[in-house]
Amino acid sequence: MFKNPHWASLIDAEMARGIASALSMARLGSYGLSAGHCVGSEAFDDWVGAVARHGANIVLSEALYPTLHMIEVALRNRLHETFSNHFGTSEWFEQAWLSQGHALMVERAKDDLMNRGRLPTVDRVVAELNFGFWCGMFHSRYEAAGQPWPKLLRAVLPRLPKSWATRDKVSSRVEAVRWLRNRVFHHEPILHLQDIRARHRAMTELLGWLSPEARAHVESICRFNAVHDDRLCANEISCTPV
User: Fold this and answer.
1) pTM above the 0.85 mark?
2) Were 148 and a residue from 14, 102, 105, 152 both cysteine, which residue would form a disulfide, CB within 3.0 to 4.6 Å?
3) How does pLDDT run across 113-142, given as a tens digit for each residue?
4) Comparing C-alpha atoms, which of 209, 240, 229 is closest to residue 74?
5) How many CB atoms lie within 10 A of CB 205?
6) Neighbours of 201 (CB within 10 A)
7) Across the chain, where does the E strand assignment appear?
8) Radius of gyration for the chain, computed over Cα atoms and rounded to the nearest angstrom
């Protein structure tokens, strides 16, 4: 059914049925396979098309990984370094200014480490805390006297443009990254997102605010634009964008 990309041209009806059996009808429903299909269905094009679109989603998700990876690690480390300097201790996450919810996340991280037989050192706790915790550091509750924002924005994001230098604007950009990151890491569809290129561009820009060197490094290895521009191209019909 497909002639491009090469991997899609290898999908025939037998392969598509086997993959559908492994993935479930419900999952492939997000890629155009109707609920009325069963494994014995003769609608070959529907099977192959759904599996190909699922494959295209995997490839596009994979292409986002370098940028998502670098943002998550760089943001975490920038926040930790800045808070450590500002609050005078690398164990700033033990202080009373954290909300109850975030303090509980810290305790869970330490418990998880100890349950795995690892001492909850500062570096291990910082690495154990999930991306939601770090995004939550930009919540409005932390914009007040004695709190990080807006005073520390430039320390965390040295290249932050003046037009973006407010906590709420940075929070909106970070939360957009978290939303897309969760879809990718939880194996959800992103193929349908019409603004996926703009989302990737915004993530790359955010990474540059954190570290222009990290942005340059990721841009040298990132394949997102090439993958996004590749198209599922059927033998009989015109190519359609991934």
Assistant:
1) yes
2) 152
3) 999 999 999 999 999 999 999 999 999 999
4) 209
5) 14
6) 14
7) 2-4, 231-234, 240-241
8) 22
